[in-house]
Amino acid sequence: MRKLFTVALMATIIFSCKNAEEKKEVATDVTYPYSLEKPDNWDIGSKENTLLVMNAFKAFEDNKVEDCLSYFADTVKWRADYMDQTFVKDSLRTAITNLRNSMQAIQVKMADFESVISKDKKDEWVTLWYTEIVTDKTGKKDSLAMVSDIKVSKGKIVELNESIRHFPTKKL
Predict the structure, then answer these.
(1) Contacts of 166 (CB under 8 A, 6+ apart)
(2) Given a cut of 70, is residue 15 above it in pLDDT?
(3) Is-contact 133 145, C-beta < 8 A?
(4) Rounded to the nearest 5°, which phi and psi values hold at 103?
């Protein structure tokens, strides 16, 4: 009986492995409805870039504008809701200062993050998924679901692309 059980267990393991391999092969034969210029172009990026980006966000949250700016390059492309601009350091300082001064407080609740680097090592990005809870100067709170794609080059933030989703207003 023991030998029969052992043989049955071995057969189950062998057939399970074969099925897993077959499923893997089938998954690679998928034809997507859209094609990419550079498919599978990304590798996992550095933890240092993720830390750099998060430190910049934390400095902004803590109202430390100069600390925040220290993570940015001399020229930065910034795309956000109703904005697509290139800033030099002084105009970026003014924009970040004005934005932060429009808020009484801001809280970032990080949901996830990912750092990637292109296979040719020319492009490095960090993506952050988070909720931003903003209290304006009158004390009114608002929450935003945010996705930020941040390009890093030579240890500095050179591009910031922010996607924003406003949460629906709660019905009373």
Answers:
(1) 142, 144
(2) no
(3) no
(4) -115, 140
Domain annotation covers residue 47: yes
Output the CA–CA distances (angstroms, integers) from residue 30 to 8, 24, 26, 33, 116, in the order listed: 34, 11, 7, 10, 24
CB 115 within 8 A of CB 46: yes
Residue 73 shares a structural domain with residue 1:
no
- Could you say which DSSP state residue 15 is in? H
Nearest to 128 by CA among 84, 168, 162: 162
Question: Do 72 and 6 share a structural domain?
Answer: no
Rg (CA), the chain: 24
Distance of alpha carbon 76 from alpha carbon 73, whole angstroms: 6
pTM score of the predicted model = 0.79
Tokens 């099925």 belong to 19
CATH code for position 148: 3.10.450.50
pLDDT per position as a tens digit, 108-137 = 999 999 999 999 999 999 999 999 999 999
> Which among 68, 137, 129, 135 is positioned nearest to 107, based on CA atoms?
135
| Segments forming the whole domain that contains residue 137 | 42-166
Q: Which of 124, 119, 118, 125 is nearest to 150 (CA)?
A: 125
Q: How many domains does the chain have?
A: 2
Q: What are the helix (H) ranges across 40-123?
A: 47-61, 65-69, 89-101
